[in-house]
Amino acid sequence: MTPLALILILILIALWKLDFIATLLNLKASSPELPAEFSDVFDKKKYEESQQYMQANSKFDIVSSIFNLFVLLTFWLCNGFVWLEGVVSVFGFGYILSGLAYLGLLFLGNLLLTMPFDIYSTFILEKRFGFNKTTSATFVSDQLKSLLITALLGGPIIALLLWIFNSVDNAWLWAWAAVTVFSLLLTYLAPTYIMPLFNKFTPLEDGALKTEIEAMSAKCEFPLTELFVIDGSKRSTKANAFFTGFGKQKKIALYDTLIKEQSIPELVAVLAHEIGHFKCRHILQRIVLSVVQMAVIFYLIGIFTSPDSAVSQVVYEAFGFTDSAPIYVGFALFGIVFQPVSFLISLAMNRWSRKHEFEADNYAKEHQGTPEHLISALKKLSAQNLSNLTPHPLVVFLEYSHPPVLQRINALRS
């Protein structure tokens, strides 16, 4: 137990403790009184059900977080990272194949350990509250497809990064460039080639809804090229909407569960909100920030994995390595060491995202000429998804990328 190891373990426990306290405060903040704003979409029974759903999810999150922390610390303190590197090196695969095997086994091990929680969440917790529509066959199919995509896309990019860091000067710069290009390309290709592997995208039929959406897009000067309906009801009764695409090729997708519950003016309001993200340049800002953040991360990885770096030697010793370890081990350990920084980044990103949501709401209000349609849509979504109407401020600060719906409604009316 080196000093760094002790510090890292204490930080990980402290982060878990903070999340645990926030969850307890969230449970305590649960109000038996339905906020008057939602009396038209929640009755007493549905409001009680939303609180039960929040409580069940909170307890589930506590159990799963305890399990995840226990597994990580046990594997770490039992020298699991050293043991796995020894197992992989025995086969003499070579540097890149050994790295893929090492990281792949860690990924598969985590997947298998967390799979029971995914199964419980999908088939017991979500089903208990009427959300789950996923069949066993769909669940298995989704898992296999995800694994295949991860292997086909993740494998080559990880192999490339391992080669770069082992063979090229200024490796962090080349790695950053490679991942940036890959990420942008994936953002462009995913809606066309990957997402249809999981959901069916059907062009929205001609009619009043399509006409109103096209009219709003024209009013906002939004370069809409395609309108789709997604069979979200295949997996859940929860609703959503989003748009994708670069340049002048913009595609909007509406979940069939959203169309079923919302009126045409409400759906147009949701659409205007999504357009607001585009027109306010939120998407571009997030892409730029992500690229910059990736540069910083790869610069730190470069220091972290350098055999001449005193930092890397101290970190390797904290995880049980008496000598320097291969670069692929550094990749795995960096993810753990970076967690405190990642936590702080997530706080800033969530705060920024909440600001963007208010701005997109305001854009929708201005271009639709009234806030009432978006307010009505948000309230219906809250009822449909059994949202927590009274979250504790600490939970909002730590976890929420969207403001609580009551804050959004009050802002729309202000």
Task: Tell me what you see in this structure.
By secondary structure, the protein is mainly alpha-helical. The protein has a domain at 3-188 and 290-349. It has 16 helices and four strands. A four-stranded mixed sheet has the order 1-2-4-3, with helices on both faces. Helix 3 crosses helix 4, helix 6 crosses helix 10 (282-305) and helix 7 (208-219) packs parallel to helix 9. The protein is globular and about 65 Å long.
The spatial strand order of the largest sheet comes to 1-2-4-3
Low-confidence segments: none
Radius of gyration: 24 Å
Q: What is the residue-averaged pLDDT?
A: 91
**Beta-strand percent range:** under 5%
Number of DSSP E strands: 4
Look at the helices and sheets and give the structural class: mainly alpha
- Biggest sheet overview: 4 strands, mixed
State the helical fraction.
Answer: over 70%
Distance between the termini: 56 Å
The ordered H/E elements are: HHHHHHEHEEEHHHHHHHHH
Total number of helical segments? 16
Broad shape: globular
